[in-house]
Each structure stands twice: as C-alpha cells, then as structure tokens.
Amino acid sequence: MSFFYFFHRPSTILRKVFIYRIFTDLKKMTTIAAELRPIVVSGPSGSGKSTLLKRLFQDYPDKFGFSVSHTTRSPRPNEIDNVHYHFVTREKFKELIEKNYFLEYTEFSNNLYGTSISAVKKVAEQGKICILDIELEGVKLVKKTDLNARFIFISPPSIEVLEKRLRDRGTESEDAIQARLDAAKKELAYAAEKGSHDLIVVNDILDVAYEQFQNFINNNNNNDG
C-alpha cells in the first residue's frame, strides 16, 4: 500500500503501520543521523525562521546542512530550484509519495510540501547537523520516529505583527494571507503545549532572537534531551 494511503486514513491501526514503515525505512539512516542530532525548526510563515536559518548557515557553513524540501508551489522571487526547494509538479510529488520517498509531508493552501529521506541522509553523511524546516504536521510525524531530533519553534511577537509582516511582503492574495494566519494560530496553540518543543524563540528583535537561537543549537545539540 502507498505512503499516501497510510497518511490520510484515520484508523489508529493504519497510523501505527504508517509509523512502523517509517521506522523500517529509516533504520539505517537514523543510526547515522543520531550522532549529529538533527534539528527541526518550525514556525508560522512570516515568523522570520528563514532569516534566522540563513544567518546560521552564513556563520557556520561547515557545521550545518539544510534539508531541501520538495514542494508543488511556485517559486517566489529569488528562490532557486534545488537550493531553496525542489520544485515539482503535483503529479511528480504524488509519484514520490507512492515510492515512500518522504520522511514527512503535508499539504497547505493546496500545495504539497515534503522532506525526503535521502535529503536528511545526505546531510548526515557529510558530517553536518541536518536542519529541517518543516510544517506542524511534519513536526508531529518526526516526533514519532527515532531521529532523536531537537525541536525549535520560531514565534512572532503576536498575530498582529505576523499579519503585518505577511501583508508587507506584497506577494500573496487575501485568501492566502488568511490561510496562513489560520495555520499560525494552530501552530501557536501547539507550541503552547508542554514539551512540544525544546526551545521557543520569540522573534521580535532579530539580533536577540538569533543569539538565543544559535546559542541553544551550539550549546545543547550534543546533550541528551
């Protein structure tokens, strides 16, 4: 049966099988990755996580590697295929799902996003700590694997600030903005749950947020937790 089938069916039994299949497919990879403790970074669109990650990679080019995700959405201005994302058609994405290609995937605003198993493995084999920038549902799925990852949530100071940032981009329709705000409320609610993340960074002042972000990664990534 396909990966897509297990992901979308509500049966508890099927979900257990789905997770079991992730364990099976990742068994070899996670042995490698556990030595470097992957870091899952999440947060609403407009929270500034991309800015923080860009700065982290500039400051530590030999220490961290980015897991490049697949998506069916169109590239934004200045986004480069196979650098920021692997941009693919919906048909190609579904084909990859059928081949159990993804560690996790989700759909948002009629666009599919997914992290491939090979993308995470590639970073680990380079001797770097893999950074995964993924959506809420992906975070929940990765938590159920044995990747031994750390989880960081980048939060806006408020929903009002987030909305202003999204509107200031000038790149999205009103419907898209409202969809992102609705998604942000769900992400913030999950982040408020005890134990959901190892660190929550409120990105109000960029330099302060970055200091907290990179200090946690550098000082805690080799600890158990």
Automatic annotation (TrEMBL):
This is Guanylate kinase. Keywords: ATP-binding, Kinase, Nucleotide-binding, Transferase. Belongs to the guanylate kinase family. The keyword Transferase applies. InterPro entries: GK/Ca_channel_bsu, Guanylate_kin-like_dom, Guanylate_kinase, P-loop_NTPase. GO terms for cellular component: cytosol. The keyword Membrane does not apply. It comes from Diversispora epigaea. SUPFAM superfamilies: P-loop containing nucleoside triphosphate hydrolases. Its EC number is 2.7.4.8. It comes from the Eukaryota. GO terms for molecular function: ATP binding; GMP kinase activity. Pfam families: Guanylate_kin. Residues 36-218 form the Guanylate kinase-like domain.
